[in-house]
Structure to design on (435 residues):
């Protein structure tokens, strides 16, 4: 039994691991280090190109549920994330370099996984999983275009936030804390008064943007909206988004500031922080000029500026089944963001499902149909839902999971019950999944 997996991002690494753990020999093709995209910095697998946060770790949140499902079923990505986590309140954030290094070590040391470096330009014979990511090389993208026709020609734009050195933040104008004092004080909060915010907003909405071929504001995925695009929607938009001050009491005044920029730890040592919600495609000198207007960042050392890149995804409802297999040629499966799942965890989850199901099929076993009651199942069923006419990338959410059959007071309580129901199903399936 043999499978070729193309791409060693989160989805490809998870998929290769699940296949190998079930006795399948895997050839894992990764174009790094021979070729990199503008978003890649290292040679490691599962590199986090944008935020270092895997978002909420709470079961009242759908992505928290998806994480817990994956933990209970033996996910490589979740094990490595938990081992390299950095404090981030109720979120699961990781030391991005430590995380990728650990995934790489696990993959390279598995006796059933053979890593082959170099760009793949044609689809190999036999069983293949294409997890080449939203930054698929032009040559492979052309091959896929020929295979899939117009259904592959979809895309949106994604952006990453800048990183600053911790020692360059003026802590006389900032403080450590979490919203409503929830959890530990893991965020650096950088307040602005109304006058400072007004000047910042004006500069942000008029700053020079880097040229991105074919980009328009309407083509941005909402979950990674560049901060300048968000600002252009209105003077107060940021105040209800990444700069909201609700629940953040400034210890110097005892009140919520007019606006607050939060910084989240980006590495385990706490020497690097990212600007939360500040994905951007401004020109680098403009990022330095505008973001330095935040009082606590007036002398900030920018270790990495924000970048923007095109993400390609498939018209999956027309092309893929619930196992992420190509309906027209089932020997070929897809995994990761190119299927239209959005987010690190969702990408890894698709790789997990593809790995499990491909291994079962090769071993002559019946497929495991994760029900829609589970986050894992709901995601696969959304991606393959042929009734969707305007398909767009989407994060996991409780809206695609069937509601409870009884009323529950309070959204958090309702979500907690939905998660408990889903995890009860996963626990019943777990032994079969792990075979």
């Amino acid at each position: 039994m043999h499978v070729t997996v193309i791409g060693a991002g989160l989805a490809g690494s998870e998929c290769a691991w699940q296949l190998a753990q079930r006795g399948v020999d895997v050839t894992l093709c990764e174009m790094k280090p021979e070729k990199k995209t503008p978003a890649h910095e290292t040679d490691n697998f599962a590199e986090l190109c944008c935020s270092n946060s895997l978002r909420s770790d709470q079961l009242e949140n759908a992505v928290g549920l998806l994480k817990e499902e994956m933990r209970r079923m033996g996910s490589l990505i979740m094990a490595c994330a938990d081992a390299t986590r950095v404090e981030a309140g109720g979120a699961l954030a990781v030391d991005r370099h430590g995380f990728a290094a650990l995934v790489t070590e696990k993959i390279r040391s598995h006796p059933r996984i053979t890593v082959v470096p170099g760009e793949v330009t044609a689809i190999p014979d036999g069983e293949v999983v294409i997890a080449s990511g939203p930054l698929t090389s032009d040559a492979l993208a052309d091959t896929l275009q020929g295979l899939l026709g117009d259904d592959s020609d979809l895309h949106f734009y994604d952006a990453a936030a800048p990183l600053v050195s911790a020692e360059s933040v003026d802590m006389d104008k900032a403080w450590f804390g979490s919203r409503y004092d929830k959890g530990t004080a893991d965020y650096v909060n950088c307040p602005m008064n109304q006058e400072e915010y007004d000047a910042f907003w004006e500069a942000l909405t008029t700053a020079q943007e880097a040229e991105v071929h074919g980009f328009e504001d309407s083509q941005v995925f909402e979950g990674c909206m560049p901060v300048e695009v968000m600002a252009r929607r209105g003077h107060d938009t940021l105040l209800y988004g990444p700069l909201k001050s609700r629940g953040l009491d400034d210890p110097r005044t005892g009140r919520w500031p007019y606006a607050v920029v939060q910084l989240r730890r980006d590495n385990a040592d706490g020497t690097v922080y990212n600007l939360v919600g500040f994905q951007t495609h401004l020109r680098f000198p403009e990022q330095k000029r505008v973001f330095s207007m935040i009082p606590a960042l007036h002398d900030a050392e920018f270790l990495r500026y924000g970048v923007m890149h095109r993400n390609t995804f498939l018209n999956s409802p027309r092309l893929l089944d619930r196992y992420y297999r190509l309906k027209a040629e089932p020997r070929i499966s897809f995994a990761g963001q190119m299927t239209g799942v959005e987010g690190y965890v969702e990408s890894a989850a698709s790789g997990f499902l593809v790995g499990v199901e491909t291994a079962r099929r090769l071993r002559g076993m019946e497929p495991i149909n994760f029900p829609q009651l589970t986050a894992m199942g709901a995601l696969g069923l959304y991606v393959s839902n042929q009734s969707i006419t305007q398909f767009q990338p989407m994060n996991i959410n409780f809206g695609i999971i069937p509601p409870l059959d009884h009323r529950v007071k309070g959204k958090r309580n309702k979500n907690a019950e939905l998660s408990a129901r889903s995890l009860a199903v996963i626990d019943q399936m777990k032994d079969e999944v792990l075979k």
Observations:
- The first strand starts at residue 2 and ends at 6.
